[in-house]
Design a protein that fits this description.
globular; proteasome; disordered C terminus; 5-stranded antiparallel sheet; 10 strands; Glutamine Phosphoribosylpyrophosphate, subunit 1, domain 1
């Protein structure tokens, strides 16, 4: 009888991590940014039925990159956890931190189990607070670790390049139109330094809006509202450029 090859635990975990990263890299990237009135989710997604962003509970949103069937199972599990906890205790007891811990345990168990392949997903769990200081954003890689993010976060295939771009340009107090424009600019950047155009029809956009009077703060931005935001931002940029040109002429 042949003896199986020995693989060290360190090498086995490294191989599993590489497998998961390659799977995630094949998917389209997405970004999550804080703006003055909440948190905005932006991603390139040609499908109108298979969403990358979803509502989990009153103030909590979910974003995922990678294999759809795997992160959809996680989303459904998160909704069930939130509903049960909110019904059993209180709606305020459902938090993004608690949900991130549940997802971390699930992803960590699957990643370390030799009986099944690791999930090819990367998650973002966000909760909008009463003020910008109360906003919470957690990124969960394939191995189940939790990263507490502030300001902006990108996940998916081109995440490192996009994150660097956002870190240099994102600022506190941005309007929704400004944050949306920045997100689209970041997503359109290529690894070779060029920039492609992403039409509005291929964008999936959602927000957690703290100013909504409803208890549920999650809202999708589609159609004319999305077009108006993109056009309004473009018009504002053109107006600023015109004012700058007039000022230069006067000088």
């Amino acid at each position: 009888m042949s003896t199986p090859f020995y693989v060290s635990p360190q090498q086995a975990m490294a191989d599993r991590a590489e497998y998961a990263r390659k799977g995630i890299a094949r998917g389209r990237s997405l970004v999550v940014l804080q703006y003055a009135d909440g948190i905005v989710f932006v991603g390139e997604n040609p499908s109108r039925a298979l969403h990358k962003f979803s509502e989990i509970y009153d103030r909590i949103g979910f974003a995922a990159a990678g294999k759809y069937n795997e992160y959809e199972n996680l989303r459904i599990g998160g909704v069930r956890y939130a509903d049960l906890r909110g019904y059993t205790y209180d709606r305020d007891d459902v938090t993004a931190r608690g949900l991130a811990n549940v997802y971390a345990q699930t992803l960590g168990t699957i990643f370390s189990s030799a009986a099944e392949k690791p999930y090819e997903v990367e998650l973002v769990v966000a909760e909008v607070g009463e003020t910008p200081e109360g906003d919470q954003i957690y990124r969960l890689p394939h191995d189940g670790s939790i990263v507490d993010e502030h300001g902006s976060v990108a996940v998916g295939g081109n995440a490192e390049l996009i994150s660097n771009y956002l870190d240099q340009r994102h600022r506190d107090g941005m309007t929704l139109a400004e944050a949306l424009k920045l997100a689209v600019q970041a997503l359109s950047r290529e690894s070779n330094g060029s920039q492609r155009e992403i039409p509005a029809e291929r964008l999936e956009v959602a927000v957690l809006d703290r100013t909504r009077p409803q208890q549920r703060k999650f809202k999708r931005i589609v159609g004319r509202q999305l077009a108006r935001l993109l056009e309004a931002d473009g018009a504002a940029t053109e107006a600023e450029s015109a004012e700058g040109a007039e000022g230069a002429d006067e000088e």
